[in-house]
Design a protein that fits this description.
Layout: H1 24-31, H2 43-60, H3 65-87, H4 97-116, H5 124-147, H6 153-156
Length: 164
C-alpha cells in the first residue's frame, strides 16, 4: 500500500508546525481513519494511518504477513528518518518513535477487533488490549517530549513594542 506523503520535511507545507509531532490523540484518529489522507495532513499521521491499515490487512490475510511486515518496516524507517530531520535529532534509544507508532497501530487494531468480535465487555482480554494502547500512548508522549526541542518562552511570545 502506498501512502503519498512527502518524505522530505522541506516539501511539507505545514508551516511552523512542521516540526511539531502529532500527539497520541491525533495518532489514534489516524488509526481510526479519521485523519491522515488529507493533502495537508501531517506526514506522521499519514504513516500512522497506513500502519493501522497494514495491521488490519495482516489480521485478514495471514498469508501476506511477510509482505506486510516488510512494508511496515519501511514505514517505521520513514517515520524515524523524517522525525530525525525535522527535530535535528538522532533516533531515540532503545525504541524508535516509528516503532512506537507501529506498536500503537497494532494495539488499536487488536483492541477494536476484540470489541467488534462479540467478546464479553468484561473480558480481561479487552481490558488488557486497551490498557496496552494507553501505555503505548504514554510512551509516545514521553518519547516526543524527549525528542522535541524545548522552545524558550521568548521564542513563542511576540516581542513587546517599545514603551509597553
Amino acid at each position: 500500500m502506498y501512502v503519498p506523503q512527502p518524505d522530505d520535511p522541506e516539501q511539507w507545507h505545514g508551516g511552523d508546525s512542521a516540526a511539531r509531532l502529532p500527539d497520541w490523540h491525533e495518532l489514534l484518529a489516524a488509526f481510526c481513519g479519521h485523519i491522515g489522507e488529507e493533502p495537508d495532513a501531517h506526514p506522521v499521521t499519514g504513516w500512522a494511518r497506513a500502519l493501522a491499515e497494514l495491521h488490519l490487512t495482516r489480521r485478514e490475510s495471514p498469508l501476506r504477513t511477510a509482505e506486510i511486515d516488510c512494508r511496515r518496516a519501511e514505514i517505521v524507517a520513514h517515520v524515524d528518518d523524517w522525525i530525525a530531520v525535522v527535530t535535528h535529532t538522532r533516533r531515540p534509544a532503545p525504541q524508535s518513535l516509528g516503532a512506537v507508532v507501529d506498536a500503537m497501530a497494532a494495539a488499536q487494531v487488536r483492541a477494536v477487533a476484540l470489541l467488534r468480535g462479540g467478546a464479553d465487555i468484561d473480558d480481561e482480554r479487552i481490558h488488557s488490549a486497551w490498557s496496552l494502547l494507553a501505555s503505548l500512548a504514554d510512551e509516545w508522549s514521553e518519547l516526543v517530549r524527549r525528542t522535541t526541542p524545548v522552545v524558550a518562552p521568548e521564542q513563542i511570545l511576540p516581542p513587546r513594542a517599545a514603551g509597553q
